[in-house]
Amino acid sequence: MAKIGKDDFVNGFVPHHNHGSVDYTGLSLNHVHQCLDVTSPPIQTQDGGHIHFTEGYVLFEDGHTHHYQAYSGPAIPVGNGMHVHYYDFHTTEDAGHSHHVKGVDHPAPGTK
């Protein structure tokens, strides 16, 4: 089996990959949190595609933090044998509020 690196372009499905992301939550009670994330390995779906699970904590800000658990959307090919996933979720409610997080993770090899 050939090794696939972060800069390799691959058509099809890459079995053992994950995605990272760096994003900010939406504004709530006049503050945001940074969200540094690494997904699970791919979870194959019945249609032949895949999604990813993620969970973690946003960075400590304004005296508190928030937890999140979410699944990504399906793979979105972005050209050159790479793909991304869209995510859209809310954090837990802590300190009387929650935050909305949405965006796209970093590209990974594979088109499916």
Could you characterize what this model shows?
It is built from no helices and ten strands. It starts with 19 loop residues before the first strand and ends with a strand. The strands form four sheets. Strands 7, 8, 9 and 10 form a four-stranded antiparallel beta sheet that branches. A two-stranded antiparallel ribbon has the order 1-2. It is mainly beta and 112 residues long. The protein has one domain. A hairpin with a 2-residue loop joins β7 and β8. The mean pLDDT is 92. This is YmaF family protein. It comes from Neobacillus vireti LMG 21834. InterPro entries: YmaF.
Number of domains: 1
Strand content of the residues, in percent?
35-45%
In angstroms, what is the radius of gyration? 15 Å
The helix/strand order is EEEEEEEEEE
Biggest sheet record? 4 strands, antiparallel
Structure in a nutshell:
Helix content is 0%, strand content 40%. It has strands at residues 20-24, 34-38, 43-44, 50-51, 53-57, 67-71, 75-79, 82-90, 100-104, 108-109. The two termini are 19 Å apart.
How would you summarize the topology of this molecule?
Elements: E1 20-24, E2 34-38, E3 43-44, E4 50-51, E5 53-57, E6 67-71, E7 75-79, E8 82-90, E9 100-104, E10 108-109
Antiparallel strand pairs: 1-2, 3-4, 5-6, 7-8, 8-9, 8-10
Features:
YmaF, 112 residues, 0% helix, single chain, 10 strands, 4-stranded antiparallel β-sheet, YmaF family protein
